[in-house]
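USER: Study each token:
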Amino acid sequence: MANVIPAINASDLEIAKKQILIAKNFLPANGWIHIDVVDGRFSPNVTWGNPAEFADFLSKNLALRKINFEIHLMMISPETATEDWLKAEARRLIVHEEAAVDAEAILKKCLGYGAELMVAIKPETPVEKLKPFFNHIQYFQILAVKPGWAGQKFQPEILEKIKSLRAELPSVTIEVDGGMTPETVKVCREAGADLFVSASYIFNSKNSRLAYEELTKA
């Protein structure tokens, strides 16, 4: 079965809460939820992403403590938000190579909280740009769509990036984010990806549980 992670790409807190609670009902024990945090600079759009509100929401919904949350920081300066999200009990942070991050410093901070760090690239970024991270990062994400907006069409050229990264680093975890359907999950799995992030296919369907299960069976 494919390891599918529902993504929250919300304009406000109420939408985020609703989608998180929907996902909780069909996720397996210790499943993951992905939250997109877009600052309006790294990508022109802006999404909800307030770690204090998130922490308060978790404190009032104890069942959510069985869920792992990864936070995708599509931001120019993600290091300004890392501490707050880690304090809010994020289990994985995702930062972009294009944001010129000090990944080693962020990784050290993540490890101090018992969290993981993933480094991401946009569809147009050469996979070679990830090489400086190969010695200390075990989690990588390849965006299959432009950053920020949910509902975009999968860009098939990222399949070669997945294959290249898998050949270079056989033991790392590779996540694909964007444009996920049963068909694209299948080809990404065949290329070597491990994790598959989906927002629109799950939450824009009439039955989110069924849509999630369709993706996992791809």
Observations:
- The longest strand covers residues 32-38.
